Amino acid sequence: MSLFPVVEPFSPAAAQEAARDLVPRIAARAQHYDASGAFPSEDFVDLRARSLLGLMVPAELGGFGASFADYAAFAAELAGGAGSTALIFNMHASVTGALAHTPEELLRELGAPESCFAARDRLLAAAAGGALYAVAMSERGTGSRLSRTATTFRRCDGGYRISGSKAFVSGAGHADAYLVTARDVDAVEPKVSYFVVPTGDGIRVEPTWDSMGMRATGSHDVHFEVSVGADALLGGIEGITLLVAQVMPQWLVASYAAVYVGVARSALRVGGMHLHERGLHTLPTVRSRMGRADAAVAAADAVVREAARRVSERPGEPETNRWVWRAKLVAGDTAASVASSVLEAAGASATRRGHPLERIYRDARCGALQPATSDVCADWLGVAVLGGDPDDESESPRW
Ligand SMILES: Cc1cc2nc3c(=O)[nH]c(=O)nc-3n(C[C@H](O)[C@H](O)[C@H](O)COP(=O)(O)OP(=O)(O)OC[C@H]3O[C@@H](n4cnc5c(N)ncnc54)[C@H](O)[C@@H]3O)c2cc1C
Q: Which GO MF terms does the UniProt record name (predicted)?
């Protein structure tokens, strides 16, 4: 008999229900993990116990078989409990979702060897069994700009040697494997590839994370000086990162969007409780701030849902991708403005350390800063609306 309350049946709706049940527990711990800046271990014990790390894994490999739209609904729910936990989960879902949803025909057309499908299935089955994946893409000095990746790989002994340092790695030190971006050390043009590097020797976590918001993501620096087998190369194809960013922007651009809608919604919920507790809810100025915030959150939620629906139904189409960029822009900006306005309605007492609104305000501020930043999204959309090709038309590379 299982010791854990495993979610049965393994359907996306059941996963959503499980997330909803977990939110009060996660919310109750959020202050502690924010203050300590520690990885939210208990939240991940709960998620693992319900097999939810397998959300994006196809049913035949033991997962919930979630679509991108299912993911967006799940992430927004989770973020209502704790933004950091949802953000770590987002990184894991980006890896497993991209693995599960990249069409096999596309990979074959690009020259993927048959062995890459077995490697993919092993990673997905492990996630269904509780393995957690982190994303190690950003670097100090260059951020998430793939074209400027300094981490290198070289071919050796039937595999690869990866050398370099990453920054902002959410879940660092707690992941079972890292999705690492690295460029071919011998190529003249930056040829950046994805590798899945299992935790072990050659990986060193440097505890550098002490940031304003999303503190419990523990997004420390991670140093790689590690050899991996040939099957660590994602898709078995070198140099595909930029192509994936353009063809499937949803995981790189829009998956955070749902997290920040959830964070914005939690500002409304927590703000409302505070206003009632202090008897401020009858003040007209306070009410109108809450009314505007409610409308803004509902609008952002609708944009994110629309983008997610289109990704699930018509992935890769130009209009779908336009919604993806809209979703990231609207969600990031809305979270910051809503949290700010609700905090103002709540008053200075809600800015005390330890007040949940103070944490949510700081967490919400991160949405516009995560790639693609709101400014980059707005520029991408501006080029598109003016009739240009936003992926290729810019003075500096988009990624
Ligand atoms: C809470 C949190 C968790 C994170 N978790 C992860 C993670 O798990 N894994 C990971 O790899 N990264 C992660 N990141 C890092 C994130 O993905 C960014 O890469 C990082 O924030 C970039 O930092 P930067 O300071 O170099 O700023 P940049 O993003 O480089 O931005 C600096 C400025 O340059 C502008 N800019 C950036 N790119 C362009 C462009 N192409 N064209 C025009 N202008 C541009 C921006 O708008 C901004 O004004 C996380 C970040 C945060 C805040």
A: acyl-CoA dehydrogenase activity; flavin adenine dinucleotide binding; monooxygenase activity
